[in-house]
């Protein structure tokens, strides 16, 4: 039995509801003996952190330094979602997103934001049969997680006047681009099709575009068996709607990856199924696993949220911890549940129970 110290940040809105189900399924999967890192069951030693809108509104705290220091010492993090009620005058946009979620991604150096997109048998895609017949949808987006437009570089001048100027500067470093591109090549190489698509907008964003392009060409020399392709971000939107089977691994910057992965979720059964891992591939800091969706204030507290994305994020967590068989058991349980989903609505916890019951070693 090996012990994994797990930080749990349920967060806001539907975050606590879906996190409870992810933990339920993780506990069952943890009992499956597997993995090369250390065989035998895993014991999760959970520490819960009540961070998010409620804490901020009550105390003004978003992520105290002492809490961040504690989280840095954990083995992994499971996060639900952050974001308060829309238009709350006491909670300006960005306070929690920047101060909590992005702060964790940046401080823990989560440079690989891994977002798999697979149309599971049993899940329903809004795409037409003609598009779906072109091939299986099974790709991975490797989204850069620590740079780009997300760094908070920019400012506002003459705010509120007709002469207001607002800027956000995209920061791209050779170091940051190279490490995420190399990670994406390695992931492509490990997959059967060995294909990598770099996505950018090199025809307009010529500085950052040139850097991403050159580094991709350079790193490609180390991976001669990987086929490299390039698409502009706008064209990717076309192909996600008309021929998503063409994608295998996509590597891209922070904002393009954010946008691609919501559309990718929509075509593979919806945002309720899309999982992600914020990975520190060098393993200096704990990685963080979370659904791609947000706090969904419109359905929060009603047991209407689909917990599958959170549950599949638990599978990515186990995979990262060197437990591929336990991860596969979760994927198989989700697949079985999806193929038997009928038209009748189920509560969040009913879905969690049904998936947990199907996890077998
Ligand atoms: P959202 O993902 O929360 O919701 C978009 C739509 O999808 C809503 O109609 C919602 O009901 C639905 N939805 C989302 N998850 C679902 C689930 N599991 N099951 C069923 N339906 C689901 O995006 P939004 O409305 O743009 O953002 C709401 C808040 O969440 C904002 O404060 C935003 O900043 C934050 N946010 C946080 C994260 C995160 O924590 N990683 C991600 C995205 C948005
Ligand atoms: C996501 C979210 C976040 C992002 C926001 C809430 C900061 O949309 O995880 O996709 O833009 O990365
Ligand atoms: Mn997003």
TrEMBL record:
Pfam (any one): Iso_dh
This protein's UniProt keywords: Amino-acid biosynthesis, Branched-chain amino acid biosynthesis, Cytoplasm, Leucine biosynthesis, Magnesium, Manganese, Metal-binding, NAD, Oxidoreductase
Coiled coil: none
Site (described: Important for catalysis): 150, 201
Signal peptide: none
Subunit annotation: Homodimer.
Name assigned to this protein: 3-isopropylmalate dehydrogenase
Species: Nocardioides panzhihuensis
